[in-house]
Amino acid sequence: MDIVFIKQLQVDTVIGVYDWEKTIQQRLLLDLELMTDISNAAKQDDIRQTLDYAVIAQRVIGLITAQPLELIETVAERVAQLLLNEFATTQVKVSVQKPGALEQAETVGVTIVRSRS
Ligand SMILES: Nc1nc2c(c(=O)[nH]1)N=C([C@H](O)[C@@H](O)CO)CN2
């Protein structure tokens, strides 16, 4: 199986558990991997036969910025379900980092893998 991926997608949004976080935007960084078969697209050099990463990026940014959320876990799960529901992929890996969250760490985050059931 092949993979279409996006690394370090920057999304500025309202995210966090604490009251002070609900009035500011913070940056999330997303790594997305979508399992798919790219062989036909490659053979025919045809964007219509693969997953367009530009379309995926815009859709994911739209989803995340649509409403405030508390947990990065919720972001990861919602993004995974969107990718499985709207794009031709059987399995996705979604990592969400919140680099500003911990002063003592470069970054924090979660990674999930979800498959079409
Ligand atoms: N597992 C998680 N732990 C924490 C989260 C989270 O989303 N998932 N969020 C926070 C706060 O919002 C924090 O980022 C504020 O700096 C704390 N722990």
Automatic annotation (TrEMBL):
Q: Which Gene3D superfamilies match?
A: 3.30.1130.10
Pathway(s): Cofactor biosynthesis; tetrahydrofolate biosynthesis; 2-amino-4-hydroxy-6-hydroxymethyl-7,8-dihydropteridine diphosphate from 7,8-dihydroneopterin triphosphate: step 3/4
InterPro entries reported for this sequence: Dihydroneopterin_aldolase, FolB_dom, GTP-CH-I_C/QueF
Q: What is its EC number?
A: 4.1.2.25
The record, for CDD domains, names:
DHNA_DHNTPE
Going by the entry's taxonomy, the superkingdom of the source organism is recorded as: Bacteria
Catalytic activity, reaction form:
7,8-dihydroneopterin = 7,8-dihydromonapterin; 7,8-dihydroneopterin = 6-hydroxymethyl-7,8-dihydropterin + glycolaldehyde
- One annotated Gene Ontology cellular component of this protein: cytoplasm
Keywords attached to this Swiss-Prot or TrEMBL record, sorted alphabetically, are: Folate biosynthesis, Isomerase, Lyase
Domain Dihydroneopterin aldolase/epimerase as annotated: residue spans? 4-114
What does the entry give for GO biological process? Answer: folic acid biosynthetic process; tetrahydrofolate biosynthetic process
Molecular function (GO) terms for this protein are: dihydroneopterin aldolase activity; isomerase activity
Family, similarity comment = Belongs to the DHNA family.
Q: What exactly does this protein do?
A: Catalyzes the conversion of 7,8-dihydroneopterin to 6-hydroxymethyl-7,8-dihydropterin.
Instruction: Output this protein's name.
Output: 7,8-dihydroneopterin aldolase
Q: What organism does the UniProt record list as the source?
A: Rheinheimera pacifica
